[in-house]
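User: quick one - fold this with NAP bound?
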Amino acid sequence: MSKHPPQQIDAIVVGAGFAGMYMLHKLRGQGLSVRVIEAGDGVGGTWFWNRYPGARVDIHSMEYAFSFDPALEREWRWSERYAPQAELLAYANHVADRYDLRRDIQFSTRVASAHYDESAARWEVAADTGESWSARWCIMATGCLSTPKDLDFAGMEDFTGTIYKTFAWPHEGVDFTGQRVAVIGTGSSAIQSIPVIAAQAAQLTVYQRTPNYSVPAWNGPISAETQADWDANRATYRATARQQGIAANVDAGEALALETPLAEVTAEFERRWAIGGFTVATGFADTGVDLAANKIAADFVGGKIRGIVSDAATAEKLVPKSYPFATKRLCVDTGYYATFNRPNVALVDLMQTSITALTPAGIATTAGETPFDAIVFATGFDAMTGTLSRIDIRGRGGVPLAEKWAHGPLTYLGLMVAGFPNLFLITGPGSPSVLTNMIMSIEQHVEFIADAIAWLGERQHTTIEASAEAEAGWVAHVAEIADTTLYPLANSWYMGANVPGKPRVFLPYVGGFPAYVEACEDVVARDYAGFVAG
Ligand code: NAP
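Assistant: Sure. Structure tokens for the protein plus NAP:
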């Protein structure tokens, strides 16, 4: 319990990543008093925490930047096609400085609870520091991938070497020179870090449970011509990106692979492979919805892996076979598969031998023990719901959000939850979020929320809440669309399948960013249909 009376403010925002920073800027601009509470001691969210070697964005940097202020866009220059973590963090700090955000952000403070006081129509929010706030609006800008999965390996405390976690990397960096290093996991974080660690360590052993599909980034410096072209055509690129949903260059094809001669399909995949990034997955409209079409893409990428990795047995282990192409998050890499051609790199297939425990010296599997100086966990996140369910959030009647979401998240548009008035989620479950360029989705959500608050103010309303019917309708729609795709066939974090006991529900909205924006705009045009204002 708080020792002091709660601080009275208009809006409390949880998290100072890109979502929380822009939310603060917008609401402050509307004259509201706002406090942002952030667990870390700096801004940047994802890019504050994930400092592992090789960490970089995998949407083009120029698009992975705010668009709300043309002056900000003009003055910031990215050095590489896919900016490294340090530069993304520098950008976040630049935004914080430029808009004087820090004076309303409280760092090193973790929100523990948020309870709705029905009689006052306010949120009572308490932090682990003992401080508390009372706010009309409570906005969760807590990120989609911000709470790591629990590490459940036996003997974690027995290991006498050093344990590193990609999601909480030491700020001073790590020098692996001369060390025997293990990496556990082969998701995006591992796939980015493995080539960099391999180049430094004496020996690197990768423990792979499920192989991932990865496509080349072809990262490099941004040329003067590219920069000039972007500067001249920024508005067009931004508009294209909003239509494509992910990024301007994904160039979503409308042709069906199954109705196109195989030679043409292969040529198109080759063309896209040469461009790199997510464009490899978006060439044909049936790749994500038809198993036979998907197999063409899977065979193409499988062929690339076999072509890059010299040892046939290792290549075979690296080729995914247990789920359709791109139904687990596609990875974008720099030299990942080629790393397995290095003499100092070994691959352990956890489908053939499983980890039994960490030992004082290293890792024990059913095949024996291997000594290590360092073990890197790149084991992923309790995605999209993990952070929210760890905060004690209670709505009307004291109902805990975790209880309401026991069988999977229920939201209207991924933005609000019935029974939780004035609580907004930025890029929450049921919104496109992780299937899009996150910055673009963040801007759209922040602007929706800010507009809704302004609209309510103009009408002297003090509350807004999703109706139970609108929520049920949206949840059904999100599930229905997911079921038209191949996504549910993979044991992915999109499905909650990576966390033992988590309900198997497809978490983001897969109908596409344009359809989602249209749905939001339609709701607004109909005076916030599906929401109840009071
Ligand atoms: P992830 O994709 O969930 O990968 C975790 C890896 O750890 C998987 O290979 C998983 O295997 C393995 N693993 C988990 N528990 C394990 C266990 N008990 N034993 C053995 N292996 C285990 O997590 P991530 O790599 O941190 O990436 C999460 C998401 O963050 C990405 O999908 C992406 O959306 C985002 N991300 C983005 C970027 C970027 O934009 N540049 C970079 C990094 C991350 P299974 O597959 O068998 O579960």
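One thing worth noting: The chain is about 30% helix and 15% strand.
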